[in-house]
Amino acid sequence: MFVYVVMYRTSTLMRLRLLEQNFLYEHLRHYYKTLNPNSNFRAIIGLRLQSICKLHTMALIDTAATMIFTSSSSSSSTARLLLFNNTKLHKFPNTISNFRRSTSLHFGTSSPTSRTIVTHCSSSPASAIQVNNETLATVIDGKRVAKDIREEIAVEISRMKEEIGIVPGLAVILVGDRKDSATYVRNKKKACDSVGINSYEVRLAEDSTEEEVLNHISKFNDDPSVHGILVQLPLPSHMNEQNVLNAVCIEKDVDGFHPLNIGRLAMRGREPLFVPCTPKGCIELLHRYDIPIKGKRAVVIGRSNIVGMPAALLLQREDATVSIVHSRTKNPEEITRQADIIISAVGQPNMVRGSWVKPGAVLIDVGINPVEDPECARGYRLVGDICYEEASKVASAITPVPGGVGPMTIAMLLSNTLLSAKRIHNLR
Ligand SMILES: NC(=O)C1=CN([C@@H]2O[C@H](COP(=O)(O)OP(=O)(O)OC[C@H]3O[C@@H](n4cnc5c(N)ncnc54)[C@H](OP(=O)(O)O)[C@@H]3O)[C@@H](O)[C@H]2O)C=CC1
Ligand SMILES: Nc1nc(=O)c2c([nH]1)NC[C@@H]1CN(c3ccc(C(=O)N[C@@H](CCC(=O)O)C(=O)O)cc3)C=[N+]21
């Protein structure tokens, strides 16, 4: 009898929108506990013969399974192990028997570069499977999750419109002509359009006065059709950022940058009206990938007001034990190596090397750094703070750049805007 052991990445599971998903999750929860804690895999699922129909369908539908192991008997000494990677699955999407033609390894072969995962198929004895160290971490797909969140928000907005005839509104103030800022603002507008939020935009010249910015904020504060106000940062150096951020009324502070909101975030027993979007997006990703935070050691690299500091506060609220690494920290790698979860928000390309990471850690890369690349149409490409190539071989899960935290920041901005409109209009 064949015993199939299938490994799926959590991101893959999240993509399954079929009945099988529940089935998979049940198995996932059960077998996850049997994983070697240092394993790169987030999911391991044992399926018996009667389940193979389901597996078959899944394999056909979802060609992104990371690995499939089959064993020709339930005895670990004679079991064969067949390994497939994404590419192979894409090449042979049609039948499961194709999988069997792949190179086979024998269970129980040990080599210094492989490690053991103990699996239990429901009624077969536990088998020791050797897994090559080259396997990659689960990719935390922020783009995908952000899309799911936008869909959820769109549903709520149409309900709101139907029930009370109100559409949430977001006002964005952009000062100066920084290219990256202009791109972000454009993306925010597109995202608002996609969910049905009205967006209002003010663009001011680089040499505008602080007073002009304050006047616009004051108008938006008083405008009942505006539920969220965002002043794009950084502001030109002649403006006082504190004055500007303080002027946004806290009920519309969807960025969560007002000192009252940040203060409440830091205090036990107090609740901010809004949580800053990027840190909120990081935590949301952890939640949606079922990554536990409580009791874990977390390290935040960076302590800026907009990302690092609120990220550390949020992790603490989630009952992690938090350390903060900054530019004056000595031997940062000694600290990061202890972390179960790392959130990096530094702005230094590829600073966090594979050797900084504890095997099995979860890595959230906030950094967005342009590096020159003549092969890209725009002459540069974006990389994170974390050296993805190295770290993804050590971590259990990692966010890519682009496509990780960035899209989540925008999704959380929409979510905060909806929250604000609901609160202002007493809608549950
Ligand atoms: N994905 C997203 O949605 C967003 C991405 N970003 C990106 O995140 C990154 C950080 O942004 P932001 O927080 O605004 O940046 P800031 O420049 O405001 O803060 C950077 C932080 O990193 C610390 N730092 C700098 N160099 C080092 C180093 N060598 N070792 C350890 N710590 C260091 C600084 O320490 P110190 O305090 O000692 O100076 C500071 O706390 C950027 O790449 C930015 O583009 C930002 C916002 C949203
Ligand atoms: N008041 C204010 N609030 C902010 O939230 C704020 C800000 N000012 N100033 C600048 C930073 C930066 N930021 C990003 C948002 C989205 C992406 C994003 O969507 N990134 C895409 C890539 C975009 C691209 O290709 O250029 C991704 O990572 O996949 C990135 C960065 C918000 N910030």
UniProtKB/TrEMBL annotation:
<feature type="domain" description="Tetrahydrofolate dehydrogenase/cyclohydrolase NAD(P)-binding">
    <location>
        <begin position="276"/>
        <end position="423"/>
    </location>
</feature>
<dbReference type="InterPro" id="IPR020630">
    <property type="entry name" value="THF_DH/CycHdrlase_cat_dom"/>
</dbReference>
<comment type="subunit">
    <text>Homodimer.</text>
</comment>
<dbReference type="Pfam" id="PF00763">
    <property type="entry name" value="THF_DHG_CYH"/>
</dbReference>
<comment type="pathway">
    <text>One-carbon metabolism; tetrahydrofolate interconversion.</text>
</comment>
<dbReference type="InterPro" id="IPR036291">
    <property type="entry name" value="NAD(P)-bd_dom_sf"/>
</dbReference>
<feature type="domain" description="Tetrahydrofolate dehydrogenase/cyclohydrolase catalytic">
    <location>
        <begin position="140"/>
        <end position="255"/>
    </location>
</feature>
<keyword id="KW-0601">Photorespiration</keyword>
<keyword id="KW-0560">Oxidoreductase</keyword>
<keyword id="KW-0378">Hydrolase</keyword>
<dbReference type="InterPro" id="IPR020631">
    <property type="entry name" value="THF_DH/CycHdrlase_NAD-bd_dom"/>
</dbReference>
<dbReference type="InterPro" id="IPR000672">
    <property type="entry name" value="THF_DH/CycHdrlase"/>
</dbReference>
<dbReference type="GO" id="GO:0005829">
    <property type="term" value="C:cytosol"/>
</dbReference>
<dbReference type="GO" id="GO:0004477">
    <property type="term" value="F:methenyltetrahydrofolate cyclohydrolase activity"/>
</dbReference>
<dbReference type="GO" id="GO:0009853">
    <property type="term" value="P:photorespiration"/>
</dbReference>
<comment type="similarity">
    <text>Belongs to the tetrahydrofolate dehydrogenase/cyclohydrolase family.</text>
</comment>
<keyword id="KW-0554">One-carbon metabolism</keyword>
<keyword id="KW-0511">Multifunctional enzyme</keyword>
<dbReference type="InterPro" id="IPR046346">
    <property type="entry name" value="Aminoacid_DH-like_N_sf"/>
</dbReference>
<dbReference type="GO" id="GO:0004488">
    <property type="term" value="F:methylenetetrahydrofolate dehydrogenase (NADP+) activity"/>
</dbReference>
<comment type="function">
    <text>Catalyzes the oxidation of 5,10-methylenetetrahydrofolate to 5,10-methenyltetrahydrofolate and then the hydrolysis of 5,10-methenyltetrahydrofolate to 10-formyltetrahydrofolate.</text>
</comment>
<protein>
    <submittedName>
        <fullName>Methenyltetrahydrofolate cyclohydrolase, Methylenetetrahydrofolate dehydrogenase (NADP(+))</fullName>
        <ecNumber>1.5.1.5</ecNumber>
        <ecNumber>3.5.4.9</ecNumber>
    </submittedName>
</protein>
<dbReference type="GO" id="GO:0035999">
    <property type="term" value="P:tetrahydrofolate interconversion"/>
</dbReference>
<dbReference type="InterPro" id="IPR020867">
    <property type="entry name" value="THF_DH/CycHdrlase_CS"/>
</dbReference>
<keyword id="KW-0521">NADP</keyword>
<dbReference type="Pfam" id="PF02882">
    <property type="entry name" value="THF_DHG_CYH_C"/>
</dbReference>
